[in-house]
């Protein structure tokens, strides 16, 4: 069986555990294929934690859930030096961040010191503690959940940290038919009808091999230019349409272009193609840009949101016709 087929088998398994949320499952696999971190936003009870844990089990990856709270300390996440009472020597005890897939639950409840330590881990795949830098696992991946900012006790994440997330996914409630299926599966689970042990479908080694395949996907010059034009449009909206002048305080950096290129390459690979199309770019642009746009006071007063701005940009930038 090819690695692509194994990823499809993994997705089918995820669908047996998670009802609906197909876009979430696709984009979690994209993150796995690129090593890009994911920010999941939505109300409680939408199986975010279950989806991430099931993904980790499916690739035989080490997994750890970290509950972020206002009293969390950097050492609770990264690890710290501990005194050995017998020898009097200090030894470093690794924290939960030293796993291949880390679920950062309610990440926007953590204090700034923890966010700063997490930023190094996400950006450099390393942790500095006790004056020594230690590498994280090669497949290291953060999937974070964020409560809607309207909830009490939440704080906006720093711009630098938001920029380290490849994708920002906004989840919604299931349809009534999907919720009915959730009820039925829950009953089956409690009656022991689906408790067979899950064998991993992939291994971290195979995931890393697939990442190399994705990096070799063909992306035409016209697609590359299209990606750059879409991202650059966030920095010069007023030049494209005078009515949009001043609605954004900050546009997206070149890191967004890189993230979009990697994301669309992985998506095309998952579809069984060795080339990227403009539709791939349009499909993934909102998830890549959503968290990178800062709307001005004027923009908020005019009822602009990141998603409506992104749709406007898609309308303004001509779609390339060919793939040459």
UniProtKB/TrEMBL annotation:
InterPro entries: AAA+_ATPase, ATPase_AAA-3, CbbQ/NirQ/NorQ/GpvN, ChlI/MoxR_AAA_lid, P-loop_NTPase. Pfam families: AAA_3 (PF07726), AAA_lid_2 (PF17863). Residues 34-175 form the AAA+ ATPase domain. This is MoxR family ATPase. It comes from Thiomicrorhabdus lithotrophica.
């Amino acid at each position: 069986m090819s690695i692509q087929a194994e990823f499809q088998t993994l997705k089918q398994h995820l669908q047996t555990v998670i009802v609906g949320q197909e876009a979430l499952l696709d984009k979690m696999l994209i993150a796995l294929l690129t090593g890009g971190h994911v920010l999941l936003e939505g109300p409680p009870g939408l199986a975010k934690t279950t989806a991430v844990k099931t993904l980790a089990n499916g690739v035989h990856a080490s997994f750890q859930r970290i509950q972020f709270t206002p009293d969390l300390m950097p050492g609770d996440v990264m690890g710290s030096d501990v005194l050995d009472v017998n020898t009097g020597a200090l030894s470093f005890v690794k924290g939960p961040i030293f796993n291949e897939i880390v679920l950062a639950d309610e990440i926007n409840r953590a204090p700034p010191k923890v966010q700063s330590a997490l930023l190094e881990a996400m950006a450099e795949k390393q942790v500095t503690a006790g004056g020594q830098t230690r590498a994280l696992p090669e497949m290291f991946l953060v999937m974070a959940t964020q409560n809607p900012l309207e909830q009490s006790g939440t704080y906006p994440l720093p711009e630098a940290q938001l920029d380290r997330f490849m994708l920002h996914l906004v989840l919604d409630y299931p349809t009534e038919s999907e919720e009915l299926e959730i009820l039925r599966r829950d009953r089956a689970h409690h009656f022991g009808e689906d408790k067979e042990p899950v064998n991993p479908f992939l291994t971290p080694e195979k995931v890393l091999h697939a990442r190399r395949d994705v990096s070799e996907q063909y992306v035409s010059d016209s697609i590359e230019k299209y990606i750059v034009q879409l991202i650059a449009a966030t920095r010069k909206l007023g030049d494209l349409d005078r009515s949009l002048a001043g609605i954004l305080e900050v546009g997206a950096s070149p890191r967004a272009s890189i993230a979009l290129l990697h994301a669309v390459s992985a998506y095309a690979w998952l579809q069984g193609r060795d080339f990227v199309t403009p539709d791939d770019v349009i499909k993934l642009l909102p998830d890549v840009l959503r968290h990178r746009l800062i709307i001005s006071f004027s923009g908020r007063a005019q009822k602009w949101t990141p998603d409506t701005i992104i749709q406007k940009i898609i309308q303004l930038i001509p779609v390339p016709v060919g793939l040459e």
